[in-house]
Amino acid sequence: MSTARAAGGDFVLLLRFDPAVLHEAAAGWRRLSAAAEEAHQQHRRRVEGPLRGQWRGADADRAFRAMAGTERELDVVRVEAASAALVLETVAERMDQARTNLSNALRRADEWRLPVAEDGTVGLPPLAPADRHDPDARVQRQRDLLLRAQLQQRVDAALAAAREASDRGARALGRLGADVLTQPRLFGTLRECAADARRVAADLGLATPYVPDNRDPARSAAWWHSLTPGEQQDLLALHPELVGRLDGLPATVRDRANRLVLAQRLDALEAGNAKGSGLTYEQWGTRQSGLRALAERLDGGGGSGGPDGEQPLLLLGLDPDGDGRAVVATGDPDTADHTAVLVPGTGTTLNQVPGQLDRIALLRDSAQQAAGPGQRVAVVSWLGYDAPEVDGSVLTTRRAEAGAEDLRRFTGGLRVAGGGHRSHLTVIGHSYGTTAVGAAAAGGAGLQADDIVAVASPGMAAEHAADLHLDPAHVWAGTARDDDVSLATGTTLGPDPTLPAFGARTVGIDTSGHSGYWDPGSESLANQGRIIAGRTPSPNSPR
C-alpha cells in the first residue's frame, strides 16, 4: 500500500469515525470489571467468610488456598478490564477530537473555496486563463496559497493525532493479555496486573488523575460525588491507593479500595524477596505475616451480633510501610446509630491489628446490648498513627502530637461521610492511645465527639478535661487498681485523668492489669459499651 493510499484511507476513516462503538466496548469492559469485583465480594461474604469461621484442618487449608487463587483471578480481571475500558475511552475521546478538528478544517475549506481530495490533500481553486494576467487574481492566488498551507497543516495535524491515538491505544491494549489467567502461578499476578495498569497509563501519556490531598474531608467527599460511576469505578480499580486514604468518603468505598491495595501489596511480598527492597529479611517476613493475618481476618468477616445478624469488617485505611498502619471498622460507621473509635497505645503495630479487631468486636457486642432496639453500632480500630515503642518515645507527647491532625481528620471524615445522618460518636483511647486522643481533642476544633473515654491513661497531653473541646461531663476515665501504667501517670504526659482535679468523670473498672479492660462479662467492658450506646456507666469506687 502506498503512503498516499494509506493517508487517503486514514482521511476517509477519520471522517466516518463513530466514537459510540468504542464507548460501548468500554462500557462492556467496565461491566466486566464491576462483575468481577461483585463476584469477589459475594465469594468472600457467602463462601470463604462463613467457612473460615467453622472449617479447620488440612482439607480446609488446601481449599482456602484454592479460594484465594480464585479471588486473585477475579481481582486480575477487575483491574485488567478496567484498564481496557480506560484505553478504549481514551482512544475514543482523542479520535473524536481529531475528527472534530478535521471537520472544522473542512468547513473552513468550504469557506475559503479550497478543494480537499479524498486523500486529505488540499488543493487550489482552478485558475481561469484570463486570471493569469490579472494583478488582482495573482494577489488572490498568493492568498490562496497561504490559506492552503494553513489548511493542509490543520488536516495533517488532525490525521497525525488520530494515528497517534490509534497507535498508543494498540500498544496499551497489547499489554493486557490473558496470560496472567491462562498461565497461572501461585503469587505475582496481582503485582503484574497493577504494573500493567501503570504501563497502560504511560503508553497513553496519561498523568496520574487528580485526587484531593486529604486535608479536608468535605472537599474529598464533594470531589468523589462529582465523579460519574464509571470514573469512580476506574479510580477504585486502577488507583485504589489514592482513593482508600481519603477521609470523608463512604466507608464501603474506602473498603473496596483498601482491600485491593492489601491484596496487591501482599501478593508483591509473597512473589518477591527482601533483596534490594531496603528491608531486612526479618522485616520482609514480619510485614508479609502481618498483611496475611489482616487479610485472613477480613476474609473471615466479623461474626454476628448486630440487629441484622451481620457484622462486616471494613478496611478504612492501610499503610504497610514502617511499623504499619491500619484502620478497620466492625459495622458501617456511615449508617450506625452509635460509633466508637478505639485508639491503641504503646507497641501497637500492623501485626497487632488482629488482636485489636478482637477488642472492637467485644466493644461492639457490649454496646449493642446497651443500645436501644434496632439500633446499629459500629466500632473502629484506628491505628492511624505511629504508636511509640517501649522505649524513650513513650515518655513524650511527640508521637501523639504527630498523629493528632490525622485523628481529627478521621473523625471529621466520619461526620462528613455520614451526611445528614449523625451517629453518636465516642472516641476511646487505651494507654498511650489516650495521649493521642487528648492531643487530638485539645487541638484544632477537636474530635467532634460526643464522648471521650481514657482507659489506662498515662496522661492525655492536656491539663483539664475542659481543654478537650467537649463538655467535661462527657469525658470519662478509668484505670485498673493494679495496672502498672499508674507508675507513669501524671509524669511527662499530663495529669492523671482519673483524679478530680482533671475534671473528668470516672468509670467503673473491675478488671486486672493493663490489657484486661475488654474481658468478656466484665464491668469494665460493659461500661465502655454503655458509653458508646449513649448511656451512663456505673461509677468507679474511690481510689
Description:
This protein has an eight-stranded mixed sheet. Helix 12 crosses helix 15. The chain is built from 15 helices and eight strands. The relative contact order is 0.07. With 543 residues, it is an alpha/beta fold. Helix content is 53%, strand content 8%. A hairpin with a 5-residue loop joins strand 1 and strand 2. The radius of gyration is 31 Å and the shape is elongated.
Could you write a compact summary of the structure shown?
The protein is an alpha/beta fold. It has helices spanning 3-16, 19-52, 58-112, 135-174, 179-182, 189-204, 217-226, 229-238, 240-243, 251-271, 281-299, 353-370, 398-417, 432-442, 523-532; strands spanning 313-319, 325-330, 338-343, 377-383, 424-430, 451-455, 475-478, 505-506. It contains 15 helices and 8 strands.
Please supply descriptive tags for the structure shown above.
alpha/beta
